[in-house]
């Protein structure tokens, strides 16, 4: 059996080609996926790594706004072009485009900032939810299903996800509410590099963000003729936290219409600090 965490870290080990036109050019591998399409979180994390390579080391990413333009081919590598849009006294702005076969599959703009002092407040973390130790692991849940994709998810994902109130892999149990929470953590120790942890959080943020839409309408991942694809993704990093320690991802969906669903997420560490905020809209089609 392959080591999913090692595979995840391999995708972040981009190669600097040394090419310098109007962009800095990097290349990276794709992770195998059962549907043959590049996982959106993977290419987001790689785009972040590429952009970070072009900014001063004292500047950390604080926001990301991207569009998924085409499905990526998981059997092929990806080329990343980074445009150094602006460098100011405190902020740097970068645009990263991910290419396969000469066409972009992702376009994302990111902003980086030096550490600074200022006003501070945050939303409160829910306190009435089960702790991760009181919930079944993703492997325990997925191993109960005789489904080929469930088997792959149980073996190949680099992150454990523990749903509250329950997963929506094979069925949707409980109230049809457009909200849920998920404890997430990398399956093993990650390098101490803060950029790796921020990229890991971007990666994992894409796993379950649209599930509140599915939960509201009783649609499970295993439903026949169900199709979903991320359209855009926005993320804001407020405070640093390690992605190999438990984080609570609180999610809700304010709207679904026109074949699209919008979800929002807030990520807290176990001390209640607000680490990041996420928003994503996706195409959702439910066939008969």
Automatic annotation (TrEMBL):
Alphabetized UniProt keyword annotations: Hydrolase, Lipid metabolism
Catalytic activity annotation: a fatty acyl-CoA + H2O = a fatty acid + CoA + H(+)
GO molecular function: fatty acyl-CoA hydrolase activity
Cross-referenced InterPro entries: Acyl-CoA_hotdog (IPR042171), Acyl_CoA_thio (IPR003703), HotDog_dom_sf (IPR029069), TesB_ACOT8-like_N (IPR049449), TesB_C (IPR025652)
The Acyl-CoA thioesterase 2 C-terminal domain, residue ranges: 172-283
A Gene Ontology BP annotation from the UniProt entry: acyl-CoA metabolic process
Highest taxon above the source species: Bacteria
Residue span(s) of domain Acyl-CoA thioesterase-like N-terminal HotDog: 30-113
Quaternary structure note: Homotetramer.
Family recorded in the similarity comment: Belongs to the C/M/P thioester hydrolase family.
Protein name, per record: Acyl-CoA thioesterase 2
Species assigned in the record: Herbiconiux oxytropis
